[in-house]
UniProtKB/TrEMBL annotation:
This is DUF4364 family protein. It comes from Alkalithermobacter thermoalcaliphilus JW-YL-7 = DSM 7308. Coiled coil: none annotated. Pfam families: DUF4364. It comes from the Bacteria. Signal peptide: none annotated.
Amino acid sequence: MFLRSSEELAVNKLLILYILDKMEIPLTNSQITQVIMENEFVDYFSLQQFISELVQSNFIKILNEEGKDYYSLTEKSIEALEYFISRIPEDMKEKIDKYVLENKENILKETQIKSNFYKKGPDEFVVNLKVIEKHIELINIDLNVPSNKQAKLICDNWKKNAPDIYGEIIQLLIKKP
């Protein structure tokens, strides 16, 4: 077992804050883990410890939406990041910036487009569809459908096409007769 320097520990924690800042949306633990692991910054267990320590010291807060935990920056972390950002090596920041540029749209869809369904009766399923932007529900629709198959199809299509569907609904609703 080797010990890491306090500078290295600080950089790794700053890196987590930097990722949350660059994504501009709360992220799940698995999303943060994916960014860190794909870029091979730290090992999984150290990352989990850093996240836990950042939560305990109020540098990141946990938001729970629909049973899922999302991590978000606090005022304290924003100030710390502004003050200490120069401690993150440029090559690490460049890797994160590139990752965000290439993956942000998919992560946004994962985080802001929600669909699920449940069985209400023998031949009745309720499908819930949402688009959330910056913690504001732009649209929230509940549909009753007769089959599990239709409910799954609607959820899948919503995940793939929500921005277009939402745009069409708005256009239809604001169209003058």
